Amino acid sequence: MIEKVNPSHPDKLADRIAGAIVDLAYIKEPDPKIAVEVLIGHRQCHVVIETSSPLEPYEISKIVHRIGGNVQTDIRLVPQDTHLAANQRVGLRCGDNGIFKGMPLTREQKQLSDIAHQIYAKYPADGKYILDGDRLIICQSNASSAELRREHPGAEINPLGDWTGGTDTDTGATNRKLGSDMADSVTGGGIHGKDLSKADVSANIYAFLKAQKTGQPVELCCAIGDTEIDGIPYPEIVAVARDYIQSVGGFEKLAEWGLF
Question: pTM value?
């Protein structure tokens, strides 16, 4: 059983805005320290940013409007906590306490991901999809239910009828769709809106990729300030995550679909 939401779902808009802000921080400096939270809905977008980077409110507003549309912005920029900043002064170390799990993707999870991508390519609007064995549920806004039934016979299509969706009908918040992003690898930490020093980003990506490579579950934990995870120096964990994020096109692109 697995659920996927597409990049136009309000929660993914929030993730994408947060990711784009992290991308901006990496343009400003090679190893920024940043954490972003976004709440968007009903023509309002609230953004809270803790960062070492010299970001400007107008730059953030431009990102919000590009991704979230015509919304009013409430932007709060504050320095990163001094204790957290001090943790990284002598080199990359685990940026938080956490537990991390990597699980090999199942055939069902890959199948739904393919279905979601195919539907979104034709209908690039808010949508959510569930696959449970032979039961496929498709909720796709701004699309003809009759046409979707012809394209996906046997699926349950838009149970409440055709709908418009988006942030005029629902709110979105950062890291609220981690099941869609990580499948069975979800633990407590979100992968969006944070720099690579944060274990929620780097250790989660490392564990997920290792599970896909080995075909075996991966379970890890760390304490803030640890210099290695899984017997590997933390900078190497970060390098694995950095390479992956660069391969998909950046933090905003990662936020569109998550890790699969």
Answer: 0.97
Tell me, yes or no, whether 140 lies in a domain. yes
C-beta separation of 40 from 199 below 8 A = no
Residue 143 CA from chain centroid, whole number = 25
Angle between helices 199-214 and 234-248 (to 10 degrees): 80
Sequence letter at residue 139: C
Cβ contacts of 160 within 8 Å, gap of 6 or more: none
Q: Which tens digits make up the pLDDT trace of 24-53?
A: 999 999 999 999 999 999 999 999 999 999
Give CA–CA dist 148/244, Å, rounded: 34
Domain range for 133 is: 2-6+108-166
| DSSP-derived pairing of the beta strands 44-51 and 72-79 | parallel
Q: 153 lies in a domain?
A: yes
User: How many other C-beta atoms lie within 10 A of the C-beta of residue 43?
Assistant: 12
Question: How many domains is the chain partitioned into structurally?
Answer: 1
Secondary structure letter of residue 205 according to DSSP: H
pLDDT of residue 89: 86
Dist. CA 24–CA 56, nearest whole Å: 10
Percent of the chain at pLDDT above 70? 100
| pLDDT score at 90 | 84
CA-based angle 170:142:69, to the nearest 5? Answer: 55
CA distances from residue 80 to 36, 89, 96, 192 in whole angstroms, order as listed? 11, 13, 13, 17
